[in-house]
Design goal:
By secondary structure, this protein is α/β, with parallel strands linked by helices. The protein has a 7-stranded mixed β-sheet with strand order 1-9-8-7-4-2-3, sandwiched between helices. It has a 3-stranded antiparallel β-sheet with strand order 12-13-14. Strands 5-6 form a two-stranded antiparallel sheet. α3 links the parallel β2 and β3. The radius of gyration is 22 Å and the shape is globular.
Length: 389
Amino acid sequence: MTTPAKPARRPINPRFSSGPCAKRPGWSPDALGDAFLGRSHRAKEGKARLKLAISKTRALLGLPEGFHVGILPGSDTGAFEAAMWSLLGERGIDVLAWESFGKGWVTDIVKHLKIADVRVLEADYGALPNLAAVDFSRDVVFTWNGTTSGVRVPDGRWIPDDREGLTLVDATSAIFAQPIDWSKADVVTYSWQKVLGGEGAHGMLILSPRAVARLERYTPAWPLPKLFRLTKKGKLDAAIFEGETINTPSMLCVEDYLDALTWAEGVGGLSGLMARANANARVLFDWIDRTPWICNLALVPETRSNTSVCLKVVDADVLALPEAGQAAFVKGIAQRLEAEGAAFDIGSYRDAPAGLRIWTGATVEASDLEALTPWLDWAFAEAKAALRI
């Protein structure tokens, strides 16, 4: 094959990592000039900043009356662990796993919480489990968007309104980019460093009235670490959901999250964020449609992520290589692009099939993705030429 010429134009921002993700367009450290630093987060002004982050989150997401929003430690992982340790065990559980993080929740539930009545509904990378097989008389645990596989649930219609159990949803790479039907979600968690491009270490926990009722009537059989305790004297610890965090938060990160929320409001709010992610993903989807050597890892179009687009190489010569050779080939593509300053951190997740993963969330510019695609073709051709030496 003829190697294409090296593209003349690079993405202005070549940061396509799936987490931490690109900062919002125009961001600089100057945005953090008003951060509440060197003071206690429990001071009146500190609590006000934390409460503002919660109220702006509630408004941007359009949460229904009665839903609670809290800031927890440990990013999305910490928030989701707190939910599982505090809520699970009252009834049987169906856990859906089709990518790395979903499989991690299975491990925690089965091997660490040691809950006996657990059904695991699994699928390979690129596919969803059979959603029709889920039993909603049980608690249901799943990721809304599989960050490491690029596969999302198509919508919430498969979840009944009259379910008996709770739905626990890890939505970290879906929220602010994909519509979430709040009538279908009892617990939702996410982190600041995904679609809004915030900083790590803090997680958000959203609880429905049904989840609060469970917390107040059910006490788990296992001891709860302090960082996971959401109740006090048998009632929801309401202070957590008013900005009185369990542990000390980074007020610098809080200020950055507030900056991201303000930017989100300025680009059209939730609908504007989703439109940006859709437009970004469309750039890659159109390129995939016209490019024979690559395809989307997600098999069904309706389940393809608009944030973490996962790709696999389908060129016949590459597929003829042993598995280790295929992994090395794809790694070579990513390394070439990084060396050229055209794209950073686009290799697939360590537990996922060898391939590429390109973040297309709202903080990415479509023009940068348009500039990226010729570089992808160039890097593939260079790797293919090297393969034939």
